[in-house]
Amino acid sequence: MVSSDDAARQVEYETLDDGRIARIWLNRPDAQNAQSRTLLVQLDEAFGRAEADDTVRVVILAARGKNFSAGHDLGSEEALAERAPGPTQHPTFRSHGATAAGVAERTYLQEWHFYFENTRRWRDLRKITIAQVQGNAISAALMLIWACDLIVAADDAKFSDVVGVRMGMPGVEYYAHPWEFGARKAKELLLTGDSIDADEAYRLGMVSKVFAREELEDKTLEFARRIAERPTMAALLVKDSVNAASDAMGFTEALRHAFHIHELGHAHWASANENRWPVGMPPDVPDWRTLGAPKPARRDTP
């Protein structure tokens, strides 16, 4: 059942099957589950809650509404308030000539905490995790999905990262693209901003199962139950062994390197657009407008 403490929260937590399965819901459907910092904090709390519960064996990460997630929340009033003062709004930037260096330092520290370290921690959670994806999963949505051990998708799911082509970045902060798509497909998708559908994601090996949209929730739960039947220690040994193999092939070091390159992209954009967009976002980057959500306020400063 859903906890009363989770009412009206951006993340909901519930347990199923006598507590063996925990299901975490992104709960901002009106905002296409765009990831505010409040949502990310609550998501980390929910993952921690599942990890601390010895009864829980499998965690499902799902999302309310039409789309899994539109990525980082960069335009809502709530998100702007969470960032105030933002990197270019801070007195250090305005009064002491920090310019691009000030943006780079502040953005680096914030994104390391909220995006990079969070995602790495969720990847190594001491539970088996399954991402349940429907509709659009854009940019930072991929980070949440890729942190999970398994991904299942509705037949209407689409996956994309528009950061590279639109912002001069290599991609989002948790740079698993070459590992999830393969090297050449990663280059293609990042250079064009194109998306892939659920069937192509399945062929690439990123998605484990594709279900009809109307069956997604039930079929995902069935899938989770099969995994929950496995002995807990055996499941964790499988997870640790596969993750260790990826790390031995350079996965973690590649993530760390790409994060630094991503932040270099922020510094470059801040230098080129000084004192305009607090996190280096140009106004033409696709946002909720393409997903039917309210248009975020323009971020220019006087």
From TrEMBL:
Keywords: Lipid metabolism, Lyase
Gene Ontology terms for molecular function: enoyl-CoA hydratase activity
SUPFAM superfamilies xref list: ClpP/crotonase (SSF52096)
The UniProt record lists the keyword rRNA-binding: no
Pfam families linked to this entry: ECH_1
InterPro entries to which the protein is assigned, alphabetical: ClpP/crotonase-like_dom_sf, Enoyl-CoA_hydra/iso
EC annotation from Swiss-Prot or TrEMBL: 4.2.1.17
Record-given protein name: Enoyl-CoA hydratase
UniProt organism field: Mycolicibacterium frederiksbergense
